[in-house]
Amino acid sequence: MKTSMNLYVHLPFCDHICFYCDFKRKVSISKKEYIDALYKEFTSLNIDSIDTLYFGGGTPSSLSIDELKQIGNWFIPYLSKDYEWTIECNPDSLTKDKIILFKEMGVNRISLGVQSFQDELLQKIGRHHSSFDVYRCINDLRECDLKNISIDLIYALPNQTLKQVQNDVNIFLSLQLPHCSIYSLQIEENSVFGKQHLKPADQDLEADMYDCICQTLKGYHHYEISSFCLNGYESKHNLVYWSDKDFTGIGWGSSGKEKGIRYDHASNYNDYLLDPLKRYFIETTKEDLMFEAIMMSLRTTFGLNVKQFNEKYKIDFYECYKKTIQKYQNYFIQSKDSLVCTQEGRNILNTILIDFLE
Ligand code: SF4
């Protein structure tokens, strides 16, 4: 059966490796081989139309104009009427020519990896762009009428002060951009920082930084723990992840969800090239699936759709999780059809989730 889908496309190429990064990405590999494998996987999909399309990586903008055109053209005939098409870009590889191409192809959302506006911090985390590159990109995007721009920022960076975080958020505000995702630095074992045994920031300082971000962005819709937007600029693609819906992932290292069951691709790059159609479904119990649905949806201000949950898992949510809901009742906004965490609830979400898990 053909269906409308939400599609993630993994483009794992980077020009260099950032010190905090643990994603599936490669430098200096044959892009042609990968694009051929990806095309095989793309043609195996039974697509009717695409509602949300997300090119992530790696750094999709590090591909050449011809490569971007080649891949982009596969999807254009399937875009639905109200599609959202996001491409992740880095300021050092996003040129005006690429922006013009994106606009021509119908890309309507750009996610720009800014991380910080402070050049000294950017160098410390192994980024190869400067704040000047960011301003140039935003200017070029606006000149080409690509105004739906989201930027990523990272806080709790090595030796970063509260004032520097405040400064980054203030600059974001001054740019009047519609969307921002802000993450705290995680020291991943396999990243350069992990191998250097870098110590994470002090937990109290990190919490103060998050508070400061939330306070400074009060005028924005804080619709998910790490996401802030002007009204109407919520990421449609990410909302799919948070609302327990199926999505399709293609490309090395990507994941998807089919009939509620998650799948991965080969974790070894050459294995993916040999058999790009192979999906590894992850064994999950009904309880695992229910927990994941609760965990993801409570991150957002839309919360858990209780009606949909009850129908899908053939269960009475409020009855099943009575004890936990009672225990944290002051942290929830409860109605017959939905359960939403308050801001305070989202601040202690990990603690609440432990009870849901039990
Ligand atoms: S953070 Fe992004 S640009 Fe940096 S190495 Fe990782 S995937 Fe590449």
Automatic annotation (TrEMBL):
A single GO molecular function, which one?
coproporphyrinogen oxidase activity
- What keywords does the record list, in alphabetical order? 4Fe-4S, Chaperone, Cytoplasm, Heme, Iron, Iron-sulfur, Metal-binding, S-adenosyl-L-methionine
The family database entries (InterPro entries) matched by this protein are listed as: Coproporphyrinogen-III_oxidase (IPR034505), Elp3/MiaA/NifB-like_rSAM (IPR006638), HemN_C (IPR010723), HemW-like (IPR004559), rSAM (IPR007197), rSAM_horseshoe (IPR023404), rSAM_sf (IPR058240)
Concerning PROSITE patterns, the annotation shows: RADICAL_SAM
Q: Where in the cell is it found?
A: Cytoplasm
Q: Cross-referenced SUPFAM superfamilies, in alphabetical order?
A: Radical SAM enzymes
Gene Ontology cellular-component terms listed? cytoplasm
Biological process, per Gene Ontology: porphyrin-containing compound biosynthetic process
Domain named Radical SAM core: which ranges? 1-224
* Keyword Iron-sulfur tagged: yes
Keyword Iron assigned to the entry: answer is yes
Give the family per the record: Belongs to the anaerobic coproporphyrinogen-III oxidase family. HemW subfamily.
Role: Probably acts as a heme chaperone, transferring heme to an unknown acceptor. Binds one molecule of heme per monomer, possibly covalently. Binds 1 [4Fe-4S] cluster. The cluster is coordinated with 3 cysteines and an exchangeable S-adenosyl-L-methionine.
What is the protein name stated in its UniProt record? Heme chaperone HemW
